[in-house]
Every structure is written in C-alpha cells, then in structure tokens.
C-alpha cells in the first residue's frame, strides 16, 4: 500500500510502474515518429501558407536534389554533372593526346577565319568596287593569306564580284569626263588602285589622244572665277590646277593662256547691265 502524501491512505492509489527493460526504446522510437510527423505537418502547414518563403529558403543542395532523376544516386548524378568530359580537352581516357581532335579543332578555326574574312570583303564590295589587289589587302588584314586568300579571290572573279578591267574603264571615264583629268593623272589613279599595267593600258586606249582639248575645256570652266586676278596670278593658278590633273607643262600652259585670253575678251565685250534714262535736256 502506498502512502498518500495528502494526509491519508488509499487502497486504489498505486505508485506508477516504470518499465526498466524492453519498452524504453520502443517508446522513444514512437516519440521520434510522432515528433517527426509533427514537424512534417508543421512544415507542410507553413509551406501551404507561405509558398514563396518555402521556395526562397530552399538551399542549393535542395535544388540539385530535386533535379536528380529517379533511381539515380545523388552523388553519382552530381559528379556526372560537374566533372569535365575527358574528350573535350583533346585527351583520351588513357591520358594520351587526341591528335584527330586537335586537327578537327584547327580545321574549324581555319573555316571561321575564312568565313569572317569573306564577310568583311563582301561588306566592302557592297559599298565600293575594289580591285583584286585591294581585295587581297582586305583578306590579309583579316588573317587570310596564301592559297586560302587566292581561292577566295579566284571564286570572286569567276562570279564577277571582282573585275579589274571593268573598274579601270570606269575610272578612266570618270576621270576624263567628270574630273577633266588627262592621261597621266588617270594612269596614276589606276596605279594607286592596284590595277595591273597591261589592264591600265587597255583601259586608257579607249581615250583619244586629245589631252590638249580636254585641258582647254577644263581651263575654260575655271577661267571666269579668276577674272578679278591680275594676268600673272590667274595664269599661275590655272596652270597649277591643270598640272594637278595630269596635264603636261606645255599642254597646261597653252590651255591656260587660251582660256584666260578668251575669257578676258568675252568679259570686255559683254554689254553692261546698267541702263541710262535720257533726261529732259537731252530730249529738248
């Protein structure tokens, strides 16, 4: 019979029995299960009420773990994801160099250089007609030289993108008709553009040997602007302009003198624009 600390004794009041063997572990396991379930319920409750917080609080390991395929061990999947492919650096599994991979990489680099150089050349040709020599310079600045550049130039010539003769003829026509240049100046322009000598001679052959006439036409167009200069100053300036356009000394001098003389004669013989009104005394 147990003693009642309240002041009396009761036959029904027994001291609690505490099991010493066999039940402690089971009770502890049950408590752990209950606690785990309670934590899970609390977590689910929190996530359901705060979905943004639950996704924000997830760490990198949780994100990687959620991406693992079913049935794949996390560590094995992670190592496969992070380790570099041995074949990517040109080495085989036994550590030897993969020469075929290096050759393929070198070939790819060469194709990239070629494609980039051709793209630059096409852009320049779309803005301005180039000679073969100028096109070769463009490719060289882009790192394409030798036979590779020669193949590109041959292909462009076959397609008509490059034509030295057509370019030379255009330069001859423009120099003679639009700029009033002589054969010497036009020939100098062709040489500066890289036109071969035999092609330049062929293009210049279409011009008649009339530098004197073209020089006179140019001098006549410039003489009126020099009317206010004295004769010597006007002659020096006009001869200088003719010389810069490729006309020889005697041709330039003759054309300048002729044009200035014609302009002076025409200026003095022009009727004045001032009109005089007769006065009453004149009429009387």
From TrEMBL:
<dbReference type="Pfam" id="PF21981">
    <property type="entry name" value="RecX_HTH3"/>
</dbReference>
<dbReference type="GO" id="GO:0005737">
    <property type="term" value="C:cytoplasm"/>
</dbReference>
<dbReference type="InterPro" id="IPR036388">
    <property type="entry name" value="WH-like_DNA-bd_sf"/>
</dbReference>
<keyword id="KW-0963">Cytoplasm</keyword>
<feature type="region of interest" description="Disordered">
    <location>
        <begin position="262"/>
        <end position="284"/>
    </location>
</feature>
<feature type="region of interest" description="Disordered">
    <location>
        <begin position="22"/>
        <end position="111"/>
    </location>
</feature>
<dbReference type="InterPro" id="IPR053924">
    <property type="entry name" value="RecX_HTH_2nd"/>
</dbReference>
<protein>
    <recommendedName>
        <fullName>Regulatory protein RecX</fullName>
    </recommendedName>
</protein>
<feature type="compositionally biased region" description="Basic and acidic residues">
    <location>
        <begin position="27"/>
        <end position="41"/>
    </location>
</feature>
<feature type="domain" description="RecX third three-helical">
    <location>
        <begin position="209"/>
        <end position="252"/>
    </location>
</feature>
<dbReference type="GO" id="GO:0006282">
    <property type="term" value="P:regulation of DNA repair"/>
</dbReference>
<dbReference type="Pfam" id="PF02631">
    <property type="entry name" value="RecX_HTH2"/>
</dbReference>
<comment type="similarity">
    <text>Belongs to the RecX family.</text>
</comment>
<feature type="compositionally biased region" description="Low complexity">
    <location>
        <begin position="83"/>
        <end position="94"/>
    </location>
</feature>
<dbReference type="InterPro" id="IPR003783">
    <property type="entry name" value="Regulatory_RecX"/>
</dbReference>
<feature type="domain" description="RecX second three-helical">
    <location>
        <begin position="163"/>
        <end position="204"/>
    </location>
</feature>
<dbReference type="InterPro" id="IPR053925">
    <property type="entry name" value="RecX_HTH_3rd"/>
</dbReference>
<comment type="function">
    <text>Modulates RecA activity.</text>
</comment>
């Amino acid at each position: 019979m147990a003693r009642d600390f309240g002041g009396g004794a009761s036959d029904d009041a027994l001291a609690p029995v505490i099991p010493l063997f066999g039940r402690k572990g089971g009770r502890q396991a049950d408590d752990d299960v209950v606690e785990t379930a309670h934590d899970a319920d609390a977590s689910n409750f929190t996530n359901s009420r705060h979905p943004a917080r639950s996704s924000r609080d997830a760490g990198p390991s949780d994100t990687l773990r959620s991406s693992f395929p079913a049935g794949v061990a996390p560590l094995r999947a992670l190592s496969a994801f992070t380790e570099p492919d041995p074949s990517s650096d040109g080495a085989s599994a036994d550590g030897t160099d993969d020469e075929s991979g290096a050759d393929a990489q070198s070939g790819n680099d060469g194709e990239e250089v070629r494609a980039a150089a051709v793209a630059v050349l096409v852009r320049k040709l779309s803005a301005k007609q180039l000679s073969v020599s100028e096109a070769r310079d463009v490719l060289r600045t882009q790192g394409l030289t030798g036979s590779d550049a020669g193949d590109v130039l041959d292909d462009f010539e076959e397609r008509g993108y490059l034509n030295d003769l057509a370019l030379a003829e255009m330069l001859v026509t423009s120099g003679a008709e639009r700029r009033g240049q002589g054969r010497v100046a036009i020939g100098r322009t062709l040489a500066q553009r890289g036109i071969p000598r035999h092609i330049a001679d062929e293009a210049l052959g279409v011009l008649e040997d009339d530098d004197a006439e073209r020089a006179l036409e140019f001098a006549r167009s410039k003489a009126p602007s020099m009317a206010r200069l004295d004769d010597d100053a006007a002659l020096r300036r006009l001869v200088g302009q003719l010389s810069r356009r490729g006309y020889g000394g005697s041709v330039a001098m003759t054309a300048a003198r002729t044009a200035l003389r014609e302009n002076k004669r025409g200026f003095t013989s022009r009727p004045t624009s001032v009109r005089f009104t007769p006065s009453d005394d004149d009429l009387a």
